[in-house]
Write a structure and sequence with these properties.
2 helices; mainly beta; 272 residues; Jelly Rolls; 7-stranded antiparallel beta sheet
Length: 272
Amino acid sequence: MTFIPAGSTARSPWALEITPESAGWTYSGLRTLNLSGETVSFTTGSEEMLVLPLSGSCMVEADGVRLALEGRRSVFASVTDFAYLPINAEVRIGGEGRFALPSAVATRRFPVRYGPAEKVPVEIRGAGQASRQVNNFCAPDAFECDKLVSVEVLTPEGNWSSYPPHKHDTASEHEAVLEEIYYFEGGPGYQRVYGGHEVMAEVSSGDVVLVPRGYHGPSMAPPGYDLYYLNVLAGPAQERSMAFCDDPRHAWIRGTWEQQQVDPRLPFGRNR
């Protein structure tokens, strides 16, 4: 199933659970956790993970290390701090709020680490109605780990992101093979996938779209509704990469951005 409605994969303690096995692929996974003051314990096993506050704050304990995550009010309010969890770690998370745990099957073991919010690179991509904000907290150049890549994308109402449509399903000098998860907050919005898997879905908070192959985009935020998505990507290459190939029918769109202004509503959390 490529479109996964909110709540359809809930299995205690997870509000959302996507594993490589349930997705039908090899590397990428995602869990979400809702806490109201209790503490949850689990083992990472073969997956490296992040603890990313969507709202609220928490304490993370792993490998004898305690990390306090300040978190944020909501995904639209600010960038957040986060924690990195290595493979084969015993973990305890306690706090109040909602938390995403993007993951990837890995082989190298890195130490438990804290990712401060002030060190997350924030990129404004595109222009005009294709303007969007990308929080590159676990992009290849921003944070070191084995296989996992994860970023946040925030799209103001009326704008399109993941545009032009692109793919990353063929290994080449200019493209990496990646399994990708889109997890949504806000909305309703719309997500398109084609050329391998066909999806045209209305998406809202808690919904997920899986992209095992093919072109994906645009992600559309209709007037009145800002849209957030968390991307989780991983693949077989030794070196982490987000290299992609635009749909050649629409690649020309990038050239039009030079003549357009960036949407002044960006970045989120500063002008709103």
